Amino acid sequence: MKNIHTALVKFDLHSDIKVSSPIALSALQNSYPSSAGSFRPELVEPVFKPMLDFLRQTGSYLMVNAYPYFAYESNSDVISLDYALFRENPGVVDAGSGLRYFSPL
């Protein structure tokens, strides 16, 4: 990421093109509900702190390859199929934050 960004700076394209790298949803320790999301502890220091510092410094974005099916599969006892498929549903309220979610993303 840094090498690509350096090349973009060299050609004065860094303001027009942002560099990022998607992370897998499996890099999260918790993903349900969304407000309880957290990274797996063993990845924080070696991967996420440097990556997030780079993204912050360059004004880029964190991308997550999220697959709602996997969230549904591992939590089908608490996630309805309508919720997982982005269909109309009453939503899920996070007891900790009081936030209401209508889809897993």
From TrEMBL:
SUPFAM superfamilies: (Trans)glycosidases (SSF51445). It catalyses: Hydrolysis of (1->3)-beta-D-glucosidic linkages in (1->3)-beta-D-glucans. Its EC number is 3.2.1.39. GO terms for molecular function: glucan endo-1,3-beta-D-glucosidase activity. One of its GO terms (biological process) is carbohydrate metabolic process. InterPro entries: GH, Glyco_hydro_17, Glyco_hydro_17_plant. It comes from the Eukaryota. Keywords: Glycosidase, Hydrolase. PANTHER family: GLUCAN ENDO-1,3-BETA-GLUCOSIDASE BG1-RELATED-RELATED. Belongs to the glycosyl hydrolase 17 family. This is glucan endo-1,3-beta-D-glucosidase. It comes from Rubus argutus.
